[in-house]
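Regression check, 2-acetamido-2-deoxy-beta-D-glucopyranose case 581:
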Amino acid sequence: MLRQARLSSRYLVLLLTPWPLLSTASAPDASKAAALNSDEFSWHKIAPSDELVWHDCYSGHQCARLKVPLDYENPDGASAAIAMRRIHSVVPHDSPEYRGPILASPGGPGASGVDFIQQFGHKISVIVGPEFDIVGCDPRGISRSTPRASFFEDRAERNLFWSTSGNSITASSSDDALARMWAQSMLVGRLAGERDDGNLRFIHSDYTARDMLRIVEAHGREKIQYWGFSYGSVLGATFAAMFPDKVGRLVIDGVVDSENYYAAECSNNLMDTEKVWTAFLNGCVDAGPTKCPIYSPTAAEIQATVDDLYDSLRKRPIPVRTATSYGIVDYDLMRNTIFVSLYKPFALFPTLARALADLSAGNATGLYQISEAPQFKCSCDLDEFSFENVNDGGLAVLCNDGKRISKSFEDAEKHYRNLLANSSWADVWMSACDRLACMAWPEFPKTNFHGPFVANTSFPLLMVGNTADPVTPLWAAKKMAQGFSGSVVLTQDSIGHCSLAAPSLCTQKHIRNYFRDGVLPEAGTVCSTDSGPFDALLEGQGVEGGGEEAQVVLGGFSAEDRTLLEAVQGLARAWDVPLGM
Ligand SMILES: *[C@@H]1O[C@H](CO)[C@@H](O)[C@H](O)[C@H]1NC(C)=O
Ligand SMILES: *[C@@H]1O[C@H](CO)[C@@H](O)[C@H](O)[C@H]1NC(C)=O
Ligand SMILES: *[C@@H]1O[C@H](CO)[C@@H](O)[C@H](O)[C@H]1NC(C)=O
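Current build output:
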């Protein structure tokens, strides 16, 4: 659904989530979740409570809605209700082995922790071990947590807005693309102000960090255990800086430079992006034509083919009809799809290689299907969509968190030029990290926490960074680590966004040891991955002989490691990880 919303709007910055990322403003991932679990559970049936009360939900999970102050400066006033979902620890809570809840955050901003638990909670649980509950929440303003941010009167208006004015523009698609983004962004800010019911100003990371502390306390615990990805690293760093004595275990993975984030700059994310794309080209050369259908003998030749495809789509977009939807494959779609595949190379590189090869033979269906979502239907069932996850929540967090930015078009151009001087992916990033949407944001007082990110925490932080992460460069993990005494940066020698984008037993064992035993890796530890991105084609896609080879690869592992490896590979191969993963 790239075509229905600007790429980012929702999962900007750190965009974690490539999938939902693509699946638009109207993105029914909340509704998808509801449909998948059409048992009798409904969030409407849970009354928000001051104490933590778990209700059975979905299949074998528990859900709760915890009341927290809407405004922490007026704690006895109105409440917000935070929606939470958990997977219970395998060991009983009264066992001496039980280690309490780990809060997992898929980032965004705007991603749903409740959906994250649904899709990946079980695998996360396998990684950290049976001693922990895995808990995900929808941060205030987002999806099932109330009050919700909404700048549109209904779903139809929201979808029309993004499909007619936005459309996944990349700044390089035409001479007026940036000007259009600017104009659209001015409207977004204005609508946000006009439709504000008075609650919008309370939706930001400072208050979400306070909510996280409430969640910890509601569990009867003193200190947090947390694993946050991408923008979830901003939340983690914010929590650690605000409440340094409340840190039990805190992992931030795919680390954002929080200072740059709170400055609303989005300007130093792309340091390693080109490395990931280069890895696609070189990986394809190494993999050969069977595993990589767009193969040529050199990277330069593959690049030339891709450039020809860009040119061709610029001149002649291609109509596509599939069994479930239809749309137009154009330059923007190709650019956005390639960018998103850099987040999850182990899931998408083989598919991308096939889709590009098909495209050069005139068949655009494969490329279209990478980001295909169901055609928007304007449902009359308001209940079904009342907790739908929409762009508005993520934008509220981004714009309330960040410092005010200039409304001038010239300044937007200057920002773009500066980005472009450092990265050829600046054109996609201008909408992926949608800071322009904040230009005309209502002028709420900026009293929220925005640093400094310096603290002696009650337990040292573990930061995890990949050597080639498309949007959260390793550099940022090293920078953030300087402020938190005793923290260690674990380097994963891989491409992709966040550690879970690539299968590494080594990394995930360090993370398990950290949570379970409080052991940090030695400074300078580097973990490698257990397979390459084009190997995925072997196991997943029925290439002859692939099954056997995959078995051999798994052969040398202990039963425990094999279980872990399966979880880790499953995460790396999943397309729709709502993380930046
Ligand atoms: C661009 O790259 C240079 C050199 O790596 C760096 O010093 C500068 O901060 C970068 N600019 C931005 C906006 O990231
Ligand atoms: C185009 O690609 C799609 C998806 O891979 C495939 O199902 C379809 O058969 C192809 N169409 C033609 C005409 O080859
Ligand atoms: C951390 O502790 C050191 C040593 O006690 C002290 O010098 C430093 O100021 C502390 N930093 C913060 C941010 O409290």
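Comparison notes: The longest strand covers residues 61-69. Residues 1-38, 537-552, 577-581 have pLDDT under 50 and may be disordered. No diff flagged against the previous build.
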